[in-house]
Amino acid sequence: MRDKRAIRDPEGTKKAILDGAESVFAERGFAGASIREIARRSGASGPLVLFHFHSKDELYRAVKERIVTSWSEGKGGAMPPEGTAENFIEDMIKTSFGFYRDNPNMVRMANWGRLEGDDAPWSGEEDIHKWYEKSIKEAQARGEIRDDISPLSVTVMICGAVHVWWEYHGHIEEHVKHGSYDMVSDEKYLKDLTSMVLRGLKP
Amino acid sequence: MRDKRAIRDPEGTKKAILDGAESVFAERGFAGASIREIARRSGASGPLVLFHFHSKDELYRAVKERIVTSWSEGKGGAMPPEGTAENFIEDMIKTSFGFYRDNPNMVRMANWGRLEGDDAPWSGEEDIHKWYEKSIKEAQARGEIRDDISPLSVTVMICGAVHVWWEYHGHIEEHVKHGSYDMVSDEKYLKDLTSMVLRGLKP
DNA sequence: GTCTATAAACCGATAGAC
DNA sequence: GTCTATCGGTTTATAGAC
């Protein structure tokens, strides 16, 4: 939250607005977010938000861009080291598991965006998937994992299983609370998933 | 010439409003839907919508209730027959695959609801999951599937893999279009997933 | 750059004629 | 039961003072 004084600090103001906007957009989506609420959370006035970002659309784009940039500047985009197929699959699951855990705002905004009709891949996503596809195909060619299953199926299955664990955490807890299932920890789920996929892909 | 009363058709109007509301809520979520748009799609006036359903909240609840009721009155809630663990798992995946394919509005509304903060299970969901848990535990006790993996992990993994296939269909197609992966058909994905899970769960 | 005031459009909901 | 007209509130965005 910015200082109450009307001092001129355009860069600080912009950052505060982006921070506030990110939290509101992640929480409520594009349609549910209001510039007033973004202004309130960032300590600026509504018109000041629009002075710096021109429109709600442009602010949304700026928030998305900052998230992607800051993620790819971290170790987010790093490709795992080469190794056996088993190591690669293990790493693929672990990395994607950590991604969902560590980037909740990015994941929530992507989910809102998908429902709101935006199917375009986020920047950086492409490269990772090309790397996944290549690694799976090579492992199949070397005979380390079964080749009767499509690389796309492998990726979607793993991403889906990880995605749902984090996205439906509250929902799953509700089921456990109502008497279905015994709860399992994040670590146990990661272990179960990895073990199940590794065996499922054995030739 | 018909009496003016003859064109009054409260039941037909209610149905048309529920139809319109379902399509708008599924498309845009609760916050993004407007009563004016619902009125437009159902051929009624805005006030007539509120005359029949009192408020936007109540209309939303009525839409949800109708979806659940009509689903559970179909064969939706039917439990699969008993059999070997292999048959049960196969059926569990197939049924859940068909559910996502055949109930897009219900699935979209559940997704909007989750992002909007509603974690309560939908009516009917509970029973199915209790049945899943029971069947998996029994199969583990009989030694037909491995028992080092939690029944919750099995269910979440399967639901997640199915969920993402249908929810991210457009997104996946974008990836394929941009050069990652060769596309696979719905049937091929179902076959790959089933085969991978069955082998992954073998003792 | 930052504010207050306000425009113009749209929102959910109501009043009242028929 | 269905409509038109309209209320009070909120929305994004702009005008203009400082």
Descriptive account of the structure:
The structure is a homodimer of 203-residue chains. Chain A has ten helices and no strands. Chain A has 203 residues and is mainly α. Chain A is elongated, with a radius of gyration of 21 Å. Chain A has two domains: 10-72, Arc Repressor Mutant, subunit A; 77-201, Tetracycline Repressor, domain 2 (Orthogonal Bundle). The first copy, chain A, starts with 9 loop residues before the first helix and ends with a helix. At the A-B interface, helix 1, helix 6, helix 7, helix 8 and helix 9 of A face helix 1, helix 6, helix 7, helix 8 and helix 9 of B. Chain A binds a DNA duplex (18 and 18 nucleotides) through helix 3.
CATH-defined topology of the largest domain in chain A: Tetracycline Repressor, domain 2
- Which chains have the largest interface? A-B, 64 and 64 residues
Order of helix and strand elements from N to C terminus of chain A: HHHHHHHHHH
Strand content of chain A: under 5%
Query: Based on the structure given, which CATH architecture of the largest domain in chain A is correct?
Result: Orthogonal Bundle
The pLDDT mean of chain A sits at: 93
